[in-house]
What does this fold into?
Amino acid sequence: MSSPVTFELIKTCKQSGARLGIVHTPHGDIPTPIYMPVGTQATVKAMTPREMEEINTKIMLSNTYHLHLRPGEQLVKEAGGIHKFMSWNKPVLTDSGGFQVFSLAALRKITEEGVSFRSHLDGSKRFISPEVSMDIQMALGSDIAMAFDVCSPYPCDHRTAEEAMHRTHRWAERCKKHHTREDQALFGIVQGAFYDDLRIESAKTLADMDFPGYGIGGLSVGEPKPIMYDMLEKIEPYMPKNKPRYLMGVGTPDCFLEGVLRGVDMFDCVLATRIARNGTCFTKNGRLVIRNAAYAHDFGPIEEGCDCYACQNFSRAYIRHLFKAQEITGGRLASIHNLRFLIRMMEEIRQAILEDRFLDYRKSFYENYDMTRNF
It folds into this structure.
């Protein structure tokens, strides 16, 4: 069966080797490299679908674990699928629920069959296996589903990482066998924790399974960033050139630059809206905490030159006032800015790759960006 999601490699930057491409899906094309905002519960927090379109969002994520617990995948299916349920006509990717089961669920027990756990909402007993994860995601109707995997913690010993990796591979086979929805693609996930030999083995094994795309999981889980970059470098030669590569759960500007340099095509993270709700904004110079007293009389935008609605219409002083007055509009405006900042950064990266100057763009970005004000 041919995949409903395909990857077209448009160009490789002569200066850096960074990749420019297009992911073709049933709900539209996704230019890569791309940042994918996270709509955990079928909504990006504080944002409407119209606002997501206004900031040029090309694809959104939703979360299998959370939607399974509430409102339930059958209700979403009854509504006509995830796109109609949340009124979003562009591509949607759903994660497998694996990471959330391991990080949120209480009293979880992992066996070869799957994971038994108690809901973090009401303590009810639940069970997700590779087959159940596929059933949930097929009912949701996303364009891209992710295989159910085992995410190793940081740090962990080699034996623990190896056992989790092999189970991930066995579960990937089960996911592939059970997945039958013809208008939905299933991506595999490379694991192996922070061991070169395991990461390379996992990349090779998953490539042999011939998925239409590949997640790189188990990174950005607390390890120093140089370790993550090293893992990306180690596996890059073993990742299929004609398939998209998705670095899961990564969402800071420096990680975008370093990931793209190492062949990554897709990124996602909740960081942009999470920090926005606390009054923290992305800027080309680094982190800006707009609640600070320094901005009480600052009538400039969050960032000069930004084309987002917040920066085009409101001042730092006003947005700071909203936060101090505990008005929810403050968090909404900061969210609009942060999401647009990352999406615009990816637009600039794609243009730099197209013009064979990605290393120049990266150098210029770091010259302006204060890493002491990073995230």
About this structure: The first strand starts at residue 6 and ends at 12. The mean pLDDT is 96. The radius of gyration is 20 Å.
